[in-house]
Amino acid sequence: MRRYHVTTFGCQMNAHDSERIKGLLEELGLGEAPSQEEADVLVFNTCTIREKPDTRLAAHLARAAAQKRQRPDTVIAVGGCYAEAQRERLFSLYPEVDVAFGPGTIAHLGEWLGAGGFGVPRGRFGTGDERRFAATLPTHRERPFQAWVQISMGCNSTCAYCIVPRVRGREVSRRPGDVLAEITRLADEGVREVTLLGQNVNSWGRDLLPEIRTDFGELLRAVDAIDGIERIRFTSPHPKDFRRPVIEAMAECDAVCEHAHLPLQSGSTRILKAMRRTYSRERYLRLVEEMRAAIPDLALTTDLIVGFPGETEDDFRETLEVVEEVGFDGAFTFVYSPRAGTEAAAMPDQVPDEVKRDRIERLVEVVQRVAAERNAQRVGRVEQVLVEGPSRTDPTLLRGRTRRNTTVNFTGDAAPGELVDVLIERSTSTTLGGSQVAVAVA
Ligand code: SAH
Ligand code: SF4
Ligand code: F3S
User: Fold this and answer.
1) pLDDT in tens, 279-290
2) Which ligand 2 atom sits closest to the C-alpha of 155?
3) Whose atoms come closest to the Cα of 14: which ligand?
4) Pocket test for ligand 2, best of 162, 168, 262 (most atoms within 8 A of CB)
5) 247 and 313 fall within a common domain
6) In this structure, are residues 195 and 234 in contact, taking their beta carbons and an 8 Å threshold?
7) Using an 8 Å Cβ cutoff, are 10 and 168 in contact?
8) How far, in Å, is the centroid of ligand 1 from the Cα of 354?
């Protein structure tokens, strides 16, 4: 049997897409190889959100090229956002690549690879008729009790730094019936936790035909009503579209977890404006207040960028202030990375590298201190944990996540997929530790 290996870069949407790529390849009769070295078909599902994933891909492809020189029948396929950004240019940059395709045309992978024979038309960028939801393809899920569920593709925002709208196209909402049918099927298969995925989940539904037009709050309620789904997560919402009905649905639906990943990007209203985020520091803070008032014990995480063009020391300090003021439970922190073709890449006043490096270090320090304080407040409480497997650092412990999405390493005897109560006894800035007290009654 020929074997494939998929390497994934980037966000949850890419992780979702990779599961569909695997599902498709398995339908073509391939098996999964435990490592790249043992595979005949190497797929790289790429990201191009910052320069770093581009460079990481180059290193991976160098290794793949060496493997192909030894075994010339190896097939190298590059999909995802970087492939879409480069298109035909990819083949001159990386002549060892056989097939390249963007995130909207995964469904055609089978045609390009040719069932069993791999008669690939080398060096052509794969184009399909039109973008299709990867969600309609067969899948190979990592865990039997958790699933990603795609609710939209593309993005209609115009954030000045971001390449996603260019590579993933305009936003299209998946029909509510299709989303709910998939989740009902997943629940029947034993899935207990779903994560709804879209670049901006809160604008979901607005582009649907008038007969089925609805909103994200309604979707949360409909998913909550599906038997067997005990945890609902979603990522990412855009603060500009986080409205009252969604907050109410979060507060009222038992299965919707007490966590929101609410990307702030910057604490300076001036920079937010230049970024075209369309909210101010004050509006973001009001939203946080409103959410916390409605959802007790809500965990908030965020994305932050330092060194956006024109960011002054004062602007940066405002970001530090908002991190303290909100008290984020965690944050992904990024150094601004100019992306060819985006508005911000052409802006004057690009911030020098050493200033960006200094700011990211200071930001990480504050983020970690605040998150450590937030986690320390959990000590002494009992949290419901969905067991995912053994701890990554100590295999005698179990690992899982709380409803607030914090990783917990704990002593206990539960199996992956079980919901258990854990007494929290220790904390760091990113994890909790404790011991299982009982099997939670769901
Ligand atoms: N659609 C999602 C995720 C976008 S990408 C959302 O809007 O929340 C994830 C994060 O990467 C963004 O929130 C942003 O913080 C960061 N990011 C995007 N483009 C970037 C760039 N050019 N440089 C640095 N960070 C960037
Ligand atoms: Fe990028 Fe902004 Fe769309 Fe998120 S909302 S994907 S940051 S353009
Ligand atoms: Fe990267 Fe594409 Fe996701 S650029 S962050 S993989 S949408």
Assistant:
1) 999 999 999 999
2) 3
3) 3
4) 162
5) yes
6) yes
7) no
8) 21
Average pLDDT, the chain: 94
Q: Report the CATH number at residue 156.
A: 3.80.30.20
Residue type, 255: A
pLDDT tens, position by position, 65-115 = 999 999 998 999 999 999 999 999 999 999 999 889 999 889 888 777 764
Give tens-digit pLDDT for 245-287.
999 999 999 999 999 999 999 999 999 999 999 999 999 999 9
Look at strands 419-427 and 382-390 and give their pairing.
antiparallel
What pLDDT shows up at residue 51?
A: 95
Is residue 152 located within the same domain as residue 283?
Answer: yes
| Burial of residue 278 (number of CB atoms within 10 Å: 0-12, 13-18, 19+) | middle
Residues 125 and 153 grouped into a single domain:
no
The domain tally of the chain equals: 3
Instruction: Return the half-sphere exposure (C-beta side, CA atoms, 13 A cut-off) of residue 7.
Output: 21
Q: Tell me: the pLDDT tens digits for 158-179?
A: 999 999 999 999 999 999 999 9
Q: Tell me which of 52, 162, 360 to substitute to probe ligand 1's pocket, judged by most ligand atoms within 8 Å of the beta carbon.
A: 162
Q: Which of 249, 241, 252 is nearest to 204 (CA)?
A: 241
- Indicate whether 143 pLDDT > 70: yes
Higher pLDDT, 118 or 378: 378
| Cβ burial, residue 205 (10 Å; 0-12/13-18/19+) | buried
Give me the domain span that covers residue 263: 146-370
Q: What pLDDT is attached to residue 128?
A: 67
Identify which of 12, 161, 164, 332 to mutate to test ligand 2's pocket (most ligand atoms within 8 A of the CB).
Answer: 164
Q: Check whether residue 391 and residue 309 sit in a common domain.
A: no
Scored b (16 or more CB within 10 A) or e, 111-131 reads ebbeeeebebeeeebbebeeb
Copy the structure tokens of residue 150: 């795609």
Residue nearest ligand 2's atom 4 by CA: 199
Shared domain check, 173 and 313: yes
**pLDDT digit string (tens) for 295-326?**
999 999 999 999 999 999 999 999 999 999 99
Nearest-atom number in ligand 1 for the CA of 236 is 8
Domain CATH code at residue 405: 2.40.50.140
pLDDT of residue 411: 97
Whose C-alpha lies nearest to ligand 2, atom 2? Answer: 159
CATH of the domain at 83: 3.40.50.12160
Task: Give the number of the ligand closest to the Cα of residue 278.
Answer: 2
- Which of 101, 130, 159 is the last residue in one of the domains? 130
